[in-house]
Amino acid sequence: MSLPQGVEMSHIILERFLSPGDRALDATCGNGHDTAFLARQVGSQGRVLAIDIQEEAVKNTRRRLEEEGLAERAVVIRGDHSRLLKLVQTQSALQTGESSGKSEEKSGEIKPGKIEVKSGESKSNKPEGEPGKIKAEGSEEESGETKPNKPENKLEETEAEKIKSGKIEKELEETEAGKLKEKAEETEVRELKGKVEEAEVGELKGKAEEAEAGELKEKPEEADAGKLKEEKKETGTEADRLLKFQAVVFNLGFLPGSAKEIITTAKTTLPALEQSRQLLDAGGVIVIVSYTGHQGGERECRQLLDWAGGLDYQGYNVLHHRFINQPTDPPQLIAVEKR
Ligand SMILES: C[S@@+](CC[C@H](N)C(=O)[O-])C[C@H]1O[C@@H](n2cnc3c(N)ncnc32)[C@H](O)[C@@H]1O
Q1: CA 62 to chain centre
Q2: Domain range enclosing 69
Q3: Ligand 1, atom 19: nearest CA belongs to which residue?
């Protein structure tokens, strides 16, 4: 028996807060250990949204989920967690559209358990791309221009350079905007088609009733309006539910096994945490595991402690867990419970 360290402690806390059917968010999915843990906690009816800024992390997490038979419970996307709200809203919009009957294959959406397939790629054995190369939808892969096994061009920017210069954010934003626009257009067409069909059915039904009863019991337009209102209400409820999480986890630092070029910093972690507060259900928890051993880690940890320590005690309970007599720098944990 030993005292729990950062990650172990984070799982002990998360386990207390999560139940089957819940929704959890992994804001730095890395190699997918935490995502898989969350997926086990929420069960087959629950859902996990996992985010990482690196393509490699997204692939590793998807692979782990597949291997552990948990892929159906999680959606893994590439993105910067400083834009968490936007990323979650996009996913919510995609999912509510999806549940209203649109085919996944047609939309190209990322569904739980589905490995994203770009046009021009086959689902089977094809390698997923050159290491370090950005392969967002709408890029050259999308346009059909294939560059199989092209040797890495030294002049091309690396993923880390793109992330640092902010280019990656723009690329990701454009991808999202495109997807949403397409979705909105398809939804509009579907809604209009549905309305026309309903109106036709309603009219016929109304006429039959009129003929039978000799009087107009219910105006078709009123029936339609009622039905549409009811449908809207249902979609609204589902959309609201998709914007709330019972737990959010931040396991900070760099991707284990990577070149450590991409490391979390308070510049993006703090806005991500602020947005997590908005996404957190009452009674939910944000768990942060912060490493101080690498360059910049100590500073990030201090800034996060300042943020967490400043939260209003009437709205939040905040816990700080750390070892205080170790020669090394064991990870520290901050947990924020929304009351
Ligand atoms: C310590 S690792 C996470 C480990 C992971 N939770 C696991 O279970 O394997 C930290 C991760 O944060 C990611 N990261 C860094 N900056 C980010 C950002 N702005 N948005 C999202 N993820 C980021 C890194 O790419 C890295 O994969």
Answers
A1: 13
A2: 6-113+241-338
A3: 80
pLDDT tens digits, 226-254? 555 565 555 667 888 899 999 999 999 99
Determine the Cα angle at 299 with ends 296 and 301, to 5°.
Answer: 105
Compute the distance from residue 284 Cα to the ligand 1 centre, in Å: 21
Cβ(285) to ligand 1 under 6 A?
Answer: no
- pLDDT exceeds cutoff 70 at 263: yes
Closest residue by Cα to atom 16, ligand 1, is 264
CA of 256 to the centre of ligand 1 (A): 9
Find the mean pLDDT for residues 215-231: 53
The CATH number of residue 283's host domain is 3.40.50.150
| 169 in a structural domain | yes
**Distance between CA atoms of 18 and 250, rounded to whole angstroms?**
16
Q: What is the CA radius of gyration of the chain?
A: 24
> 0.85 exceeded by the pTM?
no
289 lines ligand 1 (CB under 6 A): no
Both tokens assigned to 114: 């589905």
Q: pLDDT grade, residue 65 (50/70/90)? A: very high
| C-beta of 31 in contact with ligand 1 (< 6 A) | yes
Whole-number pLDDT of residue 178: 67
Other CB atoms within 10 Å distance of the CB of residue 259: 10
Q: Is the domain of 235 the same as that of 281? A: no
Does residue 269's CB lie within 6 angstroms of at least one atom of ligand 1?
Answer: no
User: Atom of ligand 1 at shortest distance to CA of 268?
Assistant: 19
Position in ligand 1 atom list of the atom nearest CA 80: 20
* 184 and 226 co-located in one domain: yes
Query: In 3D, which of 210, 216, 284 has the Cα closest to residue 245?
Result: 284
Average pLDDT of the segment spanning 135-145: 32
More confident site: 113 or 28: 28
State if residue 32 touches ligand 1 by the CB under 6 angstroms criterion: yes
